Amino acid sequence: EPEVTQTPSHQVTQMGQEVILRCVPISNHLYFYWYRQILGQKVEFLVSFYNNEISEKSEIFDDQFSVERPDGSNFTLKIRSTKLEDSAMYFCASSPGTSGGGLETQYFGPGTRLLVL
Amino acid sequence: QKEVEQDPGPLSVPEGAIVSLNCTYSNSAFQYFMWYRQYSRKGPELLMYTYSSGNKEDGRFTAQVDKSSKYISLFIRDSQPSDSATYLCAMKGTSYGKLTFGQGTILTVHP
Questions:
Q1: What angle do CA A79, A41, B57 make, to 5 degrees?
Q2: If you write DSSP's letter for every residue of B53-91 in order, what string do you get?
Q3: Nearest residue of chain A to residue B105 (CA atoms)
Q4: Cβ contact (<8 Å) for A50 and B41?
Q5: How far, in Å, CA of A98 to CA of A8, rounded?
Q6: A13: contact with B, CB 8 A cutoff
Q7: pLDDT in tens, B19-67
Q8: Considering only CB atoms, which chain A residues are within 8 Å of B106?
Q9: Whose CA is closest to A37, among A117, A112, A116?
Q10: Closest residue to A42, CB basis, from B96, B98, B103
Q11: Residue A114 needs a FRET pair 20 to 30 A away by CA distance; which of A78, A87, B54, B88 works?
Q12: What residue ranges of chain A have pLDDT lower than 70?
């Protein structure tokens, strides 16, 4: 069964460093998302991406964040200058481009655990 | 008022019990309702999906949506130890819009 994959599974970085989190969405899916989950808290929406542009972003997704689909298969989240409070589990999700019959649902990857020291 | 509220539990039941998990929400624009299961330090796994009001059954799982009360439920029949996980309700207003999640309910089914 097709699944969303994410790399790395764990990343430790120093405050102020740039990190890139990578995702390979399910093939033929057209909508892509990033969410994060701070330990013990809710899963929170960061950004959605369709047709090579951001379709929606949350207030968390400020200028230090960016997303890109560089090669038609990967979908990346870049954090330019990491802060301690960016420590969280980051989930990528994808959704097909067809409406109806539950095809609008989002399928999540296993996550990247980011620790900022 | 939080957009989506879910009792975090924890909930502990014996094997074979019927489990009821619930969420309430305040945003009347929500049209799509989902339940995800999340094992420790893993990604959310889709369990059930419902559009608008009504019931949906899949094996031991039944999802109910009551939009008039802004209340959704997930029932698990004949619960198994393998059902032990965190259950997340999630909802959205448009087909490809962002998901808004509840806090998650931690469920333990003991043999």
A1: 110
A2: SEEEEETTEEEEEETTTTEEEEEESS--GGG-EEEEEEE
A3: A42
A4: no
A5: 30
A6: no
A7: 999 999 999 999 999 999 999 878 999 999 888 888 999 999 999 999 9
A8: none
A9: A112
A10: B103
A11: B88
A12: 98-103
